[in-house]
Design a protein that fits this description.
This protein is an alpha/beta fold. Helix content is 42%, strand content 22%. It contains eleven helices and 13 strands. It has helices spanning 2-33, 42-55, 57-60, 74-80, 92-102, 142-154, 190-193, 204-209, 214-217, 243-252, 255-265, and strands at residues 35-40, 63-68, 86-91, 106-114, 118-120, 135-139, 159-160, 173-175, 181-185, 199-202, 220-221, 230-236, 270-271. The strands form three sheets. The chain has a six-stranded mixed sheet, with helices on both faces. Strands 9-6-10-5-11 form a five-stranded mixed sheet. The protein is globular and about 55 Å long.
Length: 273
């Protein structure tokens, strides 16, 4: 009888210990979950998140951890794998293409800013000066390639097939008066290509990171009005309405953030409406 009581007492103790361990693990998980781990390009995304982290997040009850990436693939891959809470580096056309090609289910949660795409050169000072047969480096990802070709078309350098849209490729160029040669490169490599090509169409974040000033140094620059390439906060599908994501989205669109963007980037980054 005494033996049975001892066994029962031991079992109860083990059960209570297990319960305590479970509760402790749950609390640790909850504590970990309370930190929003956000993947971002260094400039301007991580800088904007840094401003929010230091100046707005504490009062809103948010804890942010910003993880920087220098490419356009890993932030989405790691978000899909659950290694990130959200990311902030891309526009919706790029996200839609990524989901389609990779089979991911990521969703746009909040628009934040626009980085106008621009044409840059170290050899000429105006677009009309591009020589015949000039080599123009362009982004090699599908949506930004189409965006680059549209920029050139909007400024009369080439003409695109009607309806080509954001998926335009070199095959959609129907008129090319100067026989421009296009050299697709990874977006991050474009600033470095300026030494070797006549001109390059460079994404705003990489231009700023390389010390270029889109508002004053771009030969031609995208217009902000009606532009579909607004960068924003992205999460796994189904998490767009999570309280912390909604709060972070509001903070990123706060007037104080808009003022920070306008003051720091002087027109090279434009707050979303």
């Amino acid at each position: 009888m005494k033996f049975g009581r001892i066994v029962g007492a031991v079992a109860l103790a083990l059960s209570l210990a297990a319960c305590g361990t479970s509760q402790s693990a749950t609390k640790e998980a909850e504590s970990a979950d309370s930190v929003l781990k956000i993947g971002a390009s260094p400039v301007p995304h991580a800088e904007i998140l840094g401003f929010v982290k230091e100046n707005l997040a504490p009062a809103a009850g948010l804890k942010l951890e910003v993880v920087e990436f220098t490419d356009y693939v890993q932030p989405n891959t790691q978000l899909d794998e659950g290694l990130l809470t959200a990311n902030y580096f891309q526009h919706k056309p790029y996200l839609d293409d990524f989901n389609s090609s990779k089979g991911t289910e990521l969703a746009f949660a909040a628009p934040v800013h626009l980085e106008p795409l621009g044409l840059y050169s170290k050899k000429i000072t105006e677009p009309q000066a591009l020589p015949a047969g000039a080599t123009v480096a362009v982004p090699n990802d599908a949506t930004n390639l189409g965006r680059a070709l549209k920029l050139l078309a909007d400024h009369g350098m080439v003409k695109l097939r009607d309806g080509a849209g954001t998926a335009a490729t070199e095959r959609d160029v129907t008129e090319n008066p100067k026989n421009l040669r296009f050299q697709p490169l990874e977006a991050a490599q474009l600033p470095r290509s300026l030494e070797d090509v006549d001109a390059a169409v460079i994404n705003g974040n990489y231009a700023i990171e390389a010390g270029l000033k889109p508002a004053s140094q771009a030969l031609v620059l995208e217009k902000g009005e009606g532009n579909p390439y607004v960068n924003g906060l992205v999460v796994r599908a189904g998490h767009e309405k999570d309280a912390s994501i909604v709060t972070l989205g509001k903070l990123l669109r706060d007037q104080r953030v808009k003022d920070f963007i306008q003051q720091k980037y002087a027109g090279s980054v434009i707050p979303a409406e």
